[in-house]
Amino acid sequence: MELGPDPDLSDSDDSFFDDYYVEKKHNYTSQRNVCPELSPEEKYALELEEFYRVISHGDNESSKKFILEKGFEVDTDLKDGWTPLLLSSCYGNVELVKFLLENGANVNQHRDFMTAVMLACSCPSYTSPFEKSLEVLNVLVDNGANVRAINRKRVNALMIAATTGNILAVEYLLPLSDRNSIDNQGWTALTWAVSNNQPEVVEYLLDEGFETDLRDIRGHTPLEIARDNGLNDIMKLFPKKDLDLGEEFLDYGKVSYEDQLEDLKTQIRPRFFNEVCKIMVASNNEYLLQLFHDKNVTLEQFLAFSDEELKKLGVVMPFQRLKIMEALYKFHKRPYHPKSMHLCLNNKKVTNLDVATQLISAVQQLTAMEGSVKFALKNLEGDLTDEDKEKILRSVETLKKTIEKYKKANEKLSKKIIEWDQMTEQPDFISKKLIKSRFPWKKLTFCLSVFSVYLYFKLKH
């Protein structure tokens, strides 16, 4: 529309409107040049975008027209590798999936190795109801889809279904899948379900006999992953033997006081392997306890380990050795408290059991101190100056002398306990002497006296 009066009209004032008309006409022309007519390529791009939109909104009639009337290829790349089949599978659109397959769509096509089967399992329930995704899976499998296909991380459709909690898909795919399949990080479908807190899927897979002791590349089992993430409801689903495993590890190295004292009598230091177990469990390294037990590792050896010694022992993986060394560093970093060593108070009565308990505790503390000294000497490396090293060495020497003093005191105490044990006479609860000493003579005498008085008055009257 041209602005201003028609310049052909005789009564128009040319002097007033000419410039205005030309200026507006020029502006209109420039605006028309800003939005030129679209090229065929641009029109095609807009149509692809519209095709993508109608599939996403579930408009099946419009989607079919793009194939039947507008001549689009059935496996057209709509955007970023999304084809009509992949997109409709992801949204659980059973009708459109059937239509596309009937018109020649490739059932095993993929987007960066994510197949239609995987995508049908990948959407959460609020995007595509699990019942719809199950129908899509049935259609895809009936048309020859490969349910065992894996993506770049070796994840298959069963693992994806377990991740999203799609129990219907898990039940359908399990008989068709390799239940022992693991991905790049050593996770099974059970591990994926545990990690994503899907209790219904976890319970089903456990009932189906999935392995619970299979460890990933980090050395963790599904139960340990649940424990580390505080998934108590998931943990309760595991067999009791697996739940008690952590406690068994803590009990693994327990030794009675009697056995430890017997070792001390023969000048053998107890292993204190239970303390090793505690540190290993706390640092999520309990799966190496069997190795340490078989190698007869003591607390003193454990606390003084170096990376090279762990490697020679059989801890092959570098990340495993790193975790152990970090745990040892944290242990040695904590200063010893003076009250960690027991003090015997004057005029306080104690039993042999009290003394034995405190003796074992003192030996354990000394063992830990000695291990700390050795650890410091072995790992005295890094950007330390000669002066710093000299200070540390002096401190270590002071600790050594203190430890030697404690050792001597404990040796004397050990000998004293043995003497006390030999001096103590065990009570004889079944000897004749004991029975005689326990006969109730006083009660018998009192009863006879009362009876005699009663008999006297009876006869007198």
UniProtKB/TrEMBL annotation:
UniProt keyword terms in alphabetical order: ANK repeat, Coiled coil
Gene3D superfamilies: Ankyrin repeat-containing domain, Transcription Factor, Ets-1
Highest taxon in the source lineage: Eukaryota
Intervals holding ANK repeats: 80-112, 185-217
Coiled coil region boundaries: 389-423
Record has Coiled coil as a keyword: yes
Alphabetized InterPro entries for the sequence: Ankyrin_rpt, Ankyrin_rpt-contain_sf, SAM/pointed_sf
Any one annotated GO CC term: pi-body
Entries under PANTHER family matching the protein: ANKYRIN REPEAT, SAM AND BASIC LEUCINE ZIPPER DOMAIN-CONTAINING PROTEIN 1
Protein name: Ankyrin repeat, SAM and basic leucine zipper domain-containing protein 1
Source species of the chain: Sitophilus oryzae (Rice weevil)
